[in-house]
Design brief:
The structure holds two protein chains of two kinds. By secondary structure, chain A is α/β, with parallel strands linked by helices. Chain A contains nine helices and nine strands. In chain A, strand 6, helix 5 and strand 7 form a beta-alpha-beta unit. The chains are: A alpha/beta, B mainly alpha. The A-B interface holds A 52, 55-57, 73, 75, 77, 80, 82-83, 85-89, 92-93, 96-98, 137, 141, 147 and B 28-29, 31, 147-148, 150-151, 153-155, 157-164, 205, 208-211, 213-214.
Amino acid sequence: MDGDASQLLRLDNVCKSYHNNLVLENVSFCVNKGETVTLIGPNGAGKSTLMKISLGILDVSSGTVHRSNKISIGYMPQKVMIDDVLPLSVRDFLYLRPGSTYDDIEKVLETVKLSYISNQPVQSASGGEMQRILLARALLGQPDLLVLDEPVQGIDIMGQQEIYGLIAKVRDETNCGVLMISHDLHLVMASTDQVLCLNRHICCSGTPELVKDNPEYHAMMGRPAEGVAIYTHHHNEGHDHKHHGHNHD
Amino acid sequence: MIDEFIINAIIAGVLVAAIAGPLGCFMVWRKMAYFGDTVAHSALMGVALGIAFDSENPIIMIITCSSVAMFLLFLQRDKRFSSDTLLGILAHSALSIGMIIISMMDHFRQDMMAYLVGNILAIGMTDIYTIGAVSAFSAICLFFIWRPLLSLTVHEDLAQVEGIKVSTIKVLYMLLIAFLVAVALKVIGVLLITALMIIPAAAARTISNTPLQMIIISSCGGILSVLAGVGVSSQWDVPTGPAIVLCATVLFLLGRFSSALRS
């Protein structure tokens, strides 16, 4: 339904191995303008590796990565530790993004509600503030594609909803695409168009409602529903999942 | 009236210190002090090669130091060994090669001390031209790369995604250190050159609020240390290199204690 023009990022049959150890197997997906794709999966599933491949930081072992030409990418890495030996204010940290001006920075700090912290050392920011600073850095330079590696790490539930709301708002206003990693499907459901369950390969994918009821998802996350063994799931999505509805809690 | 050799010493020392400051800040931020030491050790190998070829051409030094730095980059591709281990291997191997070459030369009777702590009072006009050229080149490079270099120092992946040529800038920074060490050897010697990079940077940290402030203050601190060191050295007839280093240490301690008093 979407033409190539709206496609920002496409991966085809991507495989990645380290020391003959296959960490990603035949992963294919794409991210379109205005769309949020969420990667979900257990530790060591290859989520961050996949993200770095999407960004061009890591090379693929086989397969292809296609990023549309000239798109600006806003990246939010998982963790940024800045040593105290570097005297760096929050504002100067954001200023490191090439092409940004102090006006842009004041604006983006307002967006993430951090104007009060602008002149403080970046090392003094709390975990939650640091996540918002990183989001601000990703938002500078009007990104066409936001790539967020666990954007709500270390933030309490209230703050998590706020951040996800902010990301959704930016996406709706600028029509950018979003690729993010999350641990909690339920929190991102409202603002996600597509979920990819990754455990070395893509176990299942689809709308959040669909994935939520998919036994592959529960098996992958290590919370198997009772009687999962007698499950025979067919991938005719859309109609089938309702009949397979089960109560795992 | 100040003697000409003192003026030469001051000019050479000031030029080296002005560049050692910014390079030293990045060395402190990137935790690369041991890298500086390794290049300095390999400089001794350069000295030995120069003597073997019977040439005082500074190009020999520059090529030797740069080659060791680039060889390190090659070795780092094997992730089983940390940079620390590789630097240990390179530093001591280069030092050993240098010492063996020197021992094989029967006619060589020069005092090695000059290369270990420098002999700033023996600086001639040729040395000043070389140091001046390298300093000017480094200053121009730093002017263009300091911001991207700072960005990748904070976070390499983020810098790369934001369009910075990470590996090019890293290589350029390592080469700038190699160049500086190569030409500064005569000024301050193998054992002390890293000190001239690290101590003024650390001293500057105690009173800086931004990276650029720290870079500029470390340059000024280094220059001040050179002036004071040469002064102390000619006043009390002590070796110049160690005098410069200790002046820098005094600056660091002053900064450290004054910031302790303020907090």
